[in-house]
């Protein structure tokens, strides 16, 4: 692999620790700064001879706890190794599906520690829900989650996923695997609520394969201009990602 084609120039600002970056930025940019820092770290693996291994491990981790999607590194690697675009997509799919199995397992076996981790990643109110007059408290293994009769804003995302599983587990998993919705929430919830393991594997494999092979195919055709677009408009795309994330939960709640 020609790592020089994927290497990026590292500025002094990019070498700063995350703590210093956050200290220098206004509070309303902390999310964007954090995502950018993780994005740059993931992208740095593109110039490493172990980029393919990092892709596999990041795809695995993202399905269970890591916040940055593996698409970031997949894009950079494909640009530097376009002849292997679909091999890389297959590797990314394999890592992600194995990570989904891991997420299923930790959701069923280590629910307590997982709750603490997901609270950090997603935020307390998103994971557990918001207490309110119209809310119903649901106790799960000593943790309190809040449900609203109409699934309104403020309901625990964990309980929202359970409702989606009750309607159509396969479509819920497939949608989460293919879209920007946090896949890890679905794999962990799948383990806790004991959806059929076969559905988890098949839906994850189909959804993730479609997503990663689509990314690899577009880059195989269009190449460098797409990477420049992502670099130039990263902050806007990060905000758009959050909008899609919230809208995605609303949409699948209405469709499934």
DSSP summary: helix tally = 13
Distance linking N and C termini: 43 Å
Q: How are the strands of the largest sheet arranged?
A: 1-2
What is the H/E order?
HHHHHHHHEEHHHHH
Major sheet characteristics: 2 strands, antiparallel
Q: Structural class, please?
A: mainly alpha
- Specify Rg, calculated over alpha carbons: 19 Å
Got a strand count?
Answer: 2
Helix content: 55-70%
Overall pLDDT score = 80
Beta-strand level of the residues, as a percent range?
A: under 5%
Structural domain count: 1
Which residues form runs of ≥5 with pLDDT under 50? 1-15
Shape: globular
Q: In summary, what is this structure?
A:
The protein is mainly alpha-helical. It has 13 helices and 2 strands; from the N terminus they run ααααααααββααααα.
């Amino acid at each position: 692999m020609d790592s020089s084609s994927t290497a990026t120039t590292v500025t002094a600002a990019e070498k700063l620790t995350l703590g210093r970056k956050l200290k220098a930025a206004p509070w309303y940019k902390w999310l964007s700064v954090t995502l950018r820092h993780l994005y740059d770290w993931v992208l740095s693996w593109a110039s490493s001879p172990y980029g393919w291994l990092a892709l596999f491990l990041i795809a695995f981790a993202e399905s269970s706890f890591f916040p940055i999607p593996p698409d970031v590194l997949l894009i950079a690697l494909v640009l530097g190794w376009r002849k292997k675009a679909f091999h890389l997509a297959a590797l990314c799919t394999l890592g992600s599906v194995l990570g989904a199995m891991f997420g299923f397992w930790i959701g069923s076996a280590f629910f307590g520690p997982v709750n603490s981790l997901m609270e950090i990643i997603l935020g307390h109110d998103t994971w557990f829900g918001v207490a309110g007059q119209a809310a119903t408290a649901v106790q799960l293994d000593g943790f309190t989650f809040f449900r609203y009769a109409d699934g309104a804003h403020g309901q625990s995302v964990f309980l929202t996923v359970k409702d989606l599983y009750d309607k159509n587990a396969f479509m819920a998993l497939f949608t989460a695997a293919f879209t920007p919705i946090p896949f890890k929430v679905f794999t962990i919830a799948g383990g806790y609520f004991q959806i059929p393991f076969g559905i988890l594997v098949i839906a994850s494999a189909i959804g993730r394969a479609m997503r990663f092979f689509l990314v690899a195919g577009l880059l195989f055709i269009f190449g460098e201009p797409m990477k420049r677009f992502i670099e130039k408009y990263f902050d806007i795309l990060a905000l758009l990602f959050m909008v899609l994330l919230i809208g995605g939960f609303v949409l699948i709640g209405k469709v499934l």
